[in-house]
């Protein structure tokens, strides 16, 4: 088959537009609103193009998740390698857009095993990176890792961040500023402001 006989290569710009549109819909309206027709309308393309680039909606959702997960992993790496890794890590955990998208994927994962498995695999990677960095910080401060297990610290910090975003999305913010201030005070014990 000659180059002119091959099907036209799938345009990565259109593919990226579809992923971007899906992200916007999921963050603003929830995963249930991210149908092929709705994604096409948001991207300004014909609905058939959604299935041209992504034969199933699960493939689209997985591509959206993988893009977001890779970007988050990169931000987390930068945060954990910064001069104030705990503060930078905390800041990544309370970023509303990232957390809202992750929460939507958690809802979607309740109905789709492949997406659930993908989230679990990425979560293990994120947690491993967090635990490695926190292990160094705990040991640097001569704390006993049996009393202050780095993996446990990572889970608690992430849970607080996610809960804040979840409640904010519901319109409930009572105690949030106090919780953020408390976490910052605890972190300051390990990383005094420069």
From TrEMBL:
Keyword Transcription regulation tagged: yes
InterPro entries: Homeodomain-like_sf, HTH-type_TetR-like_transc_reg, HTH_TetR, Tet_transcr_reg_TetR-rel_C_sf
GO molecular function terms noted in the UniProt entry: DNA-binding transcription factor activity; transcription cis-regulatory region binding
Pfam families per UniProt: TetR_N (PF00440)
Record carries keyword Repeat: no
HTH tetR-type domain boundaries: 12-72
Top-level taxon: Bacteria
PROSITE patterns in the cross-refs: HTH_TETR_2
Ranges annotated as DNA-binding: 35-54
Keywords: DNA-binding, Transcription, Transcription regulation
PANTHER family: HTH-TYPE TRANSCRIPTIONAL REGULATOR BETI, HTH-TYPE TRANSCRIPTIONAL REGULATOR RUTR
Protein name from the UniProt record: TetR family transcriptional regulator
């Amino acid at each position: 088959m000659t180059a002119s006989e091959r099907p036209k290569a799938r345009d990565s710009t259109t593919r990226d537009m579809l992923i971007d549109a899906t992200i916007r819909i999921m963050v603003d309206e929830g995963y249930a609103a991210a149908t092929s027709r709705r994604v096409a309308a948001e991207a300004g393309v014909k609905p058939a193009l959604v299935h041209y680039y992504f034969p199933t909606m699960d493939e689209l959702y997985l591509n959206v998740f993988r893009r977001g997960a890779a970007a988050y992993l990169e931000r987390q790496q930068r945060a954990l390698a910064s001069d104030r890794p705990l503060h930078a890590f905390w800041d990544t955990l309370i970023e509303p857009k990232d957390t809202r998208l992750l929460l939507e994927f958690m809802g979607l994962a309740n109905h789709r095993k492949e997406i659930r498995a993908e989230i679990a695999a990425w979560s293990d990677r994120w947690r491993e990176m967090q635990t490695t960095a926190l292990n160094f910080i705990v040991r640097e401060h001569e704390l006993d890792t049996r009393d202050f297990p780095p993996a446990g610290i990572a889970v608690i910090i992430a849970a607080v961040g996610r809960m804040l975003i979840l409640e904010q999305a519901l319109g409930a913010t009572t105690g949030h500023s106090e919780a953020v201030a408390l976490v910052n005070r605890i972190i300051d014990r390990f990383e005094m402001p420069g």
